[in-house]
Amino acid sequence: MKRLFLDASVLIAFHFNDAERRQQKAIDFIFSEIEKQRWEGYISLITFYQLLYFIDKKINNPKTAAQRAF
Fold this sequence. Notes:
It contains 4 helices and 2 strands. The protein has helices at residues 8-16, 21-35, 45-59, 62-69; strands at 2-5, 39-42. The protein has a two-stranded parallel ribbon. It is globular, with a radius of gyration of 12 Å. The protein starts with a strand and ends with a helix.
């Protein structure tokens, strides 16, 4: 099983679907492989907090932001 370390920019692009088309296609493929449990994705704690920050900034509701993060 492949193990991937995902940085904040990849997670943000996946969550907000705002990367360039070619990059978004690759990001979507990575996450589809993770969802199929063929690959394992890892993030650092600071990346997790960065993602929550950007989600919360866009949503302005901590409960909704936390639900979207998971």
